[in-house]
Specification:
Elements lengths: L12 H5 L16 E2 L2 E2 L7 H5 L15 H4 L1 E8 L3 E8 L8 H10 L5 E5 L2 E5 L4 E2 L11
Parallel strand pairs: 4-5
Antiparallel strand pairs: 1-2, 3-4, 5-6, 6-7
Bound molecules: iron/sulfur cluster (2 copies).
Length: 142
């Protein structure tokens, strides 16, 4: 059951891992506005930042699975061939290798292809195809 009660708090996982087009910020680089409290430009942050909500923020996963703690961001993206499907973006080094994340990938691939994005590139599981296309913060191919 989705909840609307969660807040990002000090998590800046998406700020560090995703492309922010308005700031010309590539994937897997810190945003210059990241600070201890989150964002030092919160009131004037770009639309991409305002619009993005990871699945944890929307009440999915466990309370302790906030992306900066879990090591990955769970979200969705769209592919012309398979439609909307899960996207997992690495937020901490080797985050996708953690057993809990590998278990989740295994479960999710029973229903749909899963795109896993790391600094090394993107990989579809099961291996439907390989891609190194960076994604924007809303999950669409750049
Ligand atoms: S990854 Fe999720 S919880 Fe973390 S800052 Fe982004 S939207 Fe918020
Ligand atoms: S502007 Fe703020 S909300 Fe947007 S990516 Fe940078 S730190 Fe995050």
């Amino acid at each position: 059951m989705a909840s609307t009660e969660r807040t990002c708090g000090s998590c800046t996982a998406c700020c560090s891992s995703l492309v922010i087009e308005e700031l010309s910020k590539p994937a897997f680089t810190d945003c210059p506005h990241e600070c201890a409290g989150g964002c030092d430009a919160y009131a004037s942050r770009p639309t991409s930042c305002r619009d993005f909500r990871c699945l944890w923020l929307d009440g999915h996963l466990e309370e302790n699975d906030r992306p900066d703690k879990l090591g990955v961001i769970f979200t969705t993206t769209h592919d012309e061939q398979v439609g909307v499907h899960p996207l997992i973006v690495e937020a901490e080094p080797q985050g996708v290798d953690r057993p809990a994340v590998q278990d989740a990938i295994q479960r999710l691939t029973e229903k749909s292809p899963v795109l896993v994005l790391t600094p090394a590139g993107g990989t579809f599981h099961p291996k439907r195809r390989q891609t190194t296309t960076p994604l924007t913060i809303d999950g669409q191919a750049a």
